């Protein structure tokens, strides 16, 4: 033991430093030599070596197939000293149409399936390169790339392929290295070529301009991408997340719906998906499915999901998207190798590196062709010179003892180069004919033109760009594959909303603040003047203040009398029966003491093309862009600044189709003015004067928005008298004026007006009485009158609390005697 301790061959090392150094070497070997693609040709070393081995075996597109085992043997024997299974798996994937956007290998035999079936053994399958793969190897023989030693130094292999196509983006790549991973999605070759042309024309192109050409990834299996934000993030920074859904359609089978899956998200195993759906149905995690079967064939995917009679296909489909791989998230990481270093690239950087690679390839190819052309021209110039003095040439050759002496004599006597002299010595007698002489001269002339052109490429960046652009045009005509993956805008995560049917609802709110929603179908349509049905059971001192119709998926904007705005989905409002009291709205919204809801506007989006128009009791009007209310806090936001004695009466959503604003006071004074007389203001502003009152005790009771003068306005008084009048009869005045009389007020109409509606042929009117009754009336049955008249009875027996519009519904009650209302016209 003591002898070992004093042995001079033993070295003391720090195990921590040694492990660190060794692991770092291993990591870089995996990163650079195995797991990550090169940014220039988009190939990992194993793929590059497979294609190079196939090229050496003359397995180009159109050649005879060779056994995959032969190819794999050459790869592992000469270039890639790893397991044959790994190499064969890589070759198989290059041949799968559902894995590669543009296949690199043309396979013959069983190369696996989208169900996850394995390929046949390599001894059974055969392969050759595709036409597209040929684009990656084009000009390889012209010294266009560096050739490096193979693993044992016995032969050479290319460091990178001189590809004409940006394979990294077209076919994508995925791989896990040490401490990093790449996941680059495939793209449409046509779009990529157009993007390259745009970048070549404008090196300072912005991402949004590039995305006019390259819209999104394009997966070989199709599907649908939802949302552009993840795409833009990935293209800008190299990292992003996109959602990909299966493509489906609905078919009918008797009275049942059938969901058909036509395309799957990228890399989803069809057999495993079907098994997963079956298990979810068995465990009652997904309801409404009666049968699942796979009817896929050579023509494509067709998975049939039969539903039960009462099942709603939309709900079942959303459950499938939420709980199965019919919807997946594709995490994009555009990591690749540049100069032996791993880096994350944005899409513009990847395209720029490819263009720079093409410049290098074309320059090296041009130099190769130029040297070859000059060498040939040099020989032809010698032959041409020799033909001019052919008799002397023959004399020298005849007097020489051997070929070497003849060559040397030609060099010394006639000033030929060694190469020229050798070609003259090797020249056949047939070249002495006049025709052959002409051929030599023509060939030399063409070569001189070629040399001039090749030299212009090396001298001019513009000419070089023109060649690259011409190549892209050529590739555009060859690879004309259409986009397979659709792109949908503005998709959010599936939540409970997508699992709830989107049905029409009547939402009611009482004076004491109770709210509920009831399916619209529960209300029966009645004739004008009908008694109505109880819409809600109220307390003795309570009554319904307002109601409206909307769909369960709509967003409700609650505007309070204090100018606060709150945000709520319709489906979050408790559903009740016709006679249920509902739920206190204070339990759904964060309202302060005595704060009252004055306006509820349903909307499906928060477009910048829309405005929210506020009307106050004191006649103030204000417009604010709807987009300012897209992100509301739980306690709401301040939507308008109000004077101490003022409050909100109502608020309306207006788009660019709206021309006029219409304000109605309780004493039948009204004003119509151009909406452009107001402008969009921020949330924390007061607004401007809309109407000037003639009477100190007057105040605004309702307001509306008008698209054109052909529209009709329905005005209703507190005693249930109403009339329709053309909007054009209300004189257009300046904002802030006194306006005109809207209804002739009498004892029968009552002292005050309760509201006004815009008449729509597709809509009915609903009137709520202070006793809680709801009456539905076809507005077309209400008589049309001029501005300064009263109207006809709409509701009898009770004072009207409010009026609103709702979608039409077929008449179910025809028993009312309409003759009761023939003489109710008031002058």
UniProtKB/TrEMBL annotation:
Main location: cytoplasm
BP-aspect Gene Ontology terms: DNA topological change; DNA-templated DNA replication
Stretches assigned to coiled coil: none
Name of a matching Pfam family: DNA_gyraseA_C
EC supergroup of this enzyme: isomerase
EC number: 5.6.2.2
Molecular function terms, GO-annotated: ATP binding; DNA binding; DNA negative supercoiling activity
Annotated localization: Cytoplasm
Positions of region (Disordered): 804-827
Keywords, ordered alphabetically: ATP-binding, Cytoplasm, DNA-binding, Isomerase, Nucleotide-binding, Topoisomerase
Comp. bias (Acidic residues): 812-827
Catalytic residues (positions): 124
Motif, GyrA-box: chain positions: 526-532
A Gene Ontology term for the protein's cellular component: chromosome
Reactions that this protein is recorded to catalyse: ATP-dependent breakage, passage and rejoining of double-stranded DNA
Subunit structure of this chain's protein: Heterotetramer, composed of two GyrA and two GyrB chains. In the heterotetramer, GyrA contains the active site tyrosine that forms a transient covalent intermediate with DNA, while GyrB binds cofactors and catalyzes ATP hydrolysis. Heterotetramer composed of ParC and ParE.
PANTHER family for the chain: DNA GYRASE SUBUNIT A, CHLOROPLASTIC_MITOCHONDRIAL, DNA GYRASE/TOPOISOMERASE SUBUNIT A
Protein name: DNA gyrase subunit A
Organism of this sequence: Sulfurimonas denitrificans (strain ATCC 33889 / DSM 1251)
């Amino acid at each position: 033991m003591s002898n070992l301790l004093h042995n001079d061959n033993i070295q003391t090392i720090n195990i921590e430093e040694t492990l660190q150094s060794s692991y770092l070497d291993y990591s870089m070997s995996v990163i650079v030599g195995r797991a990550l693609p090169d940014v220039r040709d988009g190939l990992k070393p194993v793929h590059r070596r497979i294609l190079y081995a196939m090229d050496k075996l003359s397995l180009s597109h159109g050649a005879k197939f060779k056994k995959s085992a032969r190819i794999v043997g050459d790869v592992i024997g000469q270039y890639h000293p790893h397991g044959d299974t790994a190499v064969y798996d890589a070759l198989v994937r290059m041949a799968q149409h559902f894995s590669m956007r543009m296949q690199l290998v043309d396979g013959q035999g069983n190369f696996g399936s989208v169900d996850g079936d394995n390929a046949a053994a390599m001894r059974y399958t055969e392969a050759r390169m595709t036409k597209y793969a040929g684009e990656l190897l084009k000009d390889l023989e012209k010294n266009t790339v560096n050739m490096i030693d193979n693993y044992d130094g016995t032969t050479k292999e290319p460091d990178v392929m001189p590809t004409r196509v940006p394979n990294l983006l077209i076919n994508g790549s995925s791989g896990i290295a040490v401490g990093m991973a790449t996941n680059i999605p495939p793209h449409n070759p046509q779009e990529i070529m157009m993007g390259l042309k745009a970048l070549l024309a404008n090196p300072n192109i912005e991402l949004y301009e590039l995305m006019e050409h390259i819209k999104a990834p394009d997966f070989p299996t199709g599907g649908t991408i939802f949302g552009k934000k993840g795409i833009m993030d990935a293209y800008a920074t190299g990292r992003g997340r996109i959602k990909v859904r299966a493509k489906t359609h609905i078919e009918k089978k008797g009275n049942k719906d059938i969901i058909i899956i036509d395309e799957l998200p990228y890399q989803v195993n069809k057999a495993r998906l079907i098994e997963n759906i079956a298990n979810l149905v068995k465990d009652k995690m997904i309801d409404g499915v009666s049968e699942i079967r796979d009817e896929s064939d050579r023509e494509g995917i067709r998975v049939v999901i039969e539903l039960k009679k009462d099942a709603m296909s939309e709900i079942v489909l959303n459950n499938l998207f939420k709980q199965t791989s019919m919807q997946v998230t594709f995490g994009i990481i555009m990591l690749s190798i540049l100069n032996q270093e791993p880096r994350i690239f944005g899409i513009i950087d990847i395209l720029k590196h490819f263009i720079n690679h093409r410049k290098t390839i074309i320059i090296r190819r041009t130099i190769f062709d130029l040297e070859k052309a000059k060498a040939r021209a040099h020989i032809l110039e010698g032959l041409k010179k020799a033909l001019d003095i052919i008799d002397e040439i023959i004399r020298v050759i005849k007097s020489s003892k051997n070929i070497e002496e003849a060559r040397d004599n030609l060099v010394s006597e006639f000033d030929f180069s060694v190469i020229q002299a050798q070609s003259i010595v090797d020249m056949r007698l047939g070249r002495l004919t006049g025709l052959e002489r002409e051929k030599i001269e023509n060939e030399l002339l063409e070569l001189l033109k070629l040399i001039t052109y090749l030299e212009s490429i090396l001298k001019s960046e513009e000419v070089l760009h023109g060649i690259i652009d011409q190549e892209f045009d050529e590739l555009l005509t060859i690879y004309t594959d259409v986009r397979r993956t659709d792109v949908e805008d503005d998709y959010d995560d599936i939540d409970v909303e997508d699992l709830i049917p989107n049905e029409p609802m009547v939402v009611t709110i009482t004076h004491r603040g109770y709210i509920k929603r009831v399916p619209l179908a529960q209300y029966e349509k009645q004739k004008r003047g009908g008694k109505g049905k109880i819409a809600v059971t109220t307390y003795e001192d309570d009554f319904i203040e307002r109601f409206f119709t909307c769909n369960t998926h709509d967003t409700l904007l609650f505007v309070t009398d204090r100018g606060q705005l709150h945000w709520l989905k319709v489906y979050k409002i408790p559903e009740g029966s016709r006679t249920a009291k509902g739920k206190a709205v204070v339990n759904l919204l964060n309202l302060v003491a005595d704060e009252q809801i004055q306006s509820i506007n349903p909307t499906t989006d928060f477009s910048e093309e829309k405005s929210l128009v506020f009307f106050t009791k004191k006649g103030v009007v204000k417009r604010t862009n709807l987009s300012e209310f897209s992100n509301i806090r739980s306690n709401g936001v301040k939507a308008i600044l109000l004077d101490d004695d003022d409050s909100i009466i109502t608020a309306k959503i207006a788009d660019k189709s709206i021309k006029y604003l219409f304000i109605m006071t309780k004493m039948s004074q009204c004003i119509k003015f151009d909406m452009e007389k107001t402008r969009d203001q921020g949330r924390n502003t007061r607004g401007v004067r809309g109407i000037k009152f003639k009477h100190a005790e007057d105040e605004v009771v309702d307001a509306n928005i008008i698209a054109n003068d052909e529209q009709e306005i329905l005005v209703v008084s507190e005693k249930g008298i109403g009339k329709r009048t053309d909007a054009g009869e209300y004189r257009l005045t300046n904002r802030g004026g006194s306006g005109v009389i809207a209804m002739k007020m009498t004892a029968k109409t009552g002292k005050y007006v309760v509201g006004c509606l815009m008449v729509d042929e597709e809509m009915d009117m609903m009137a709520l009485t202070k006793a809680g009754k709801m009456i539905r009336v076809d507005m077309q049955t209400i008589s049309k009158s001029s501005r300064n008249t009263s109207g006809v009875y709409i509701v009898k027996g009770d004072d009207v609390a409010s009026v609103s519009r709702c979608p039409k519904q077929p008449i179910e009650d025809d028993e009312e005697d309409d003759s009761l209302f023939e003489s109710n016209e008031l002058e």
